[in-house]
Amino acid sequence: MSPSAVAPGSQPGPAPAPPSVDERKRRRLALVGGSLGNLVEWYDWFVYASFAIYFADSFFPGDNPTTQLMNTAGIFAVGFLMRPVGGWILGRAADRHGRKSALTLTVTMMSVAALLIAVAPTYGQAGYFGALVLLLARLLQGMSIGGEYAASATYLTEASARNRRGLGSSFQYVSMTCGQLLGLGILITMQHTLTTAQLESWGWRIPFVLGALFAVVVFWLRRQLQETDAFQEEAASGEDAHDDSTRGTLKALWQYRRQAGLVMALTLGGTVAYYTYTTYLTKYLVGSAGMPKTTATLVSFTALTLFAVLQPFAGMLSDRIGRRPLLITFAVGCTVGTYPIMTALGSASSYWSALGLSLLALVIITGYTSINAAVKAELFPTRVRALGVALPYAIANALFGGTAEYVALWFKNSGHETMFFWYVSGCALISLVTYVLMPDTRDAALSRAEAGANADRAGDRGDAAAAPAEAVR
Question: The whole model's pTM is what?
Fold first, then answer.
């Protein structure tokens, strides 16, 4: 049965037997390994945006700060264009060779990209060659992050107990946010220990060097992870049937094109809103509200810290009431709340007012961020799950998430900044329609073992129709 047939509001079956000590230990290791690796990946990804205000003029000379930021934001957006390529290549690798191997490869690629940015020559040293190095590094980062999202989303979801998949997958955005917080924490520390001239001259290179070193530690950690049961089961069944040639291929994904379309539509509003209130927030507070850089950075750091803490609670809530209620709450809040929140932020005059408004926006976004990894993974069967999550998500991010900051700056530069607020609301409205029409995926089985347990429980109750729908074939 297709996951699209999951009945909204369906009730979970009896609670599964408590896991053994070894099983709990394995799941904790999976959670730590998947999360810490994801943290470093997204630290390297976001630190570019966090430090752009200091290195923009090193690669793009000129007298207009907004134009310089638009150039660096353009390269930031170009990195997103490689995410579909990375999602396809690394998603395929994760479905054919395992989640663990794909996770190890992505962190290696990100380390190399961070080193390239750290040593990139400035415009004064090599003209636009430095910008070219910056571009190449972002392309490599885009490929890496395109595969990382799918591999980590799939791994964290598959490695979690069935009745805690919302909780387990919520750690993807916990680790993503902590990666950004790590970057912001380093930025705040450097702002208080280095002068602005030092930061703009050479200090901005330090976080990229650190990112490469962090990745070495994560590479070792991910080598210790165990493969998920769902993938091992699928790999074994494919070998037995001598018919695993389509696993992780576009041909196999085409059979689930409706689910792939759902991933793109449900991602649209969430990714635009997320990048608006995370990577763009600091620039908006500096450029539009007129806040000092240090104050704006501190607002982002504090808001994101509380945002990270919220994710597991929302994930646990989705395990109890389903995924759709949280998604719908997010989309309604973002559709009607973006214009007033952004307008108020643009005139915020103090740290506390800006923090309160930022937190309000991030609480709304939590309805999407805390569970989107689980929802996407629950839509697909094991043999195409990583690719099914990776490719449509990466396409949606390339078109909308990666360009959100650039679109915002373009509207600002053209004198129509408030039009961006309506743009964000419109994207959220499209996702809202999707959430209302799509099924709830909470009770989908991710493996044949889970599907068998469903059938056994339904048989015991004498009601086969009561078994939750499956995501396996």
Answer: 0.81
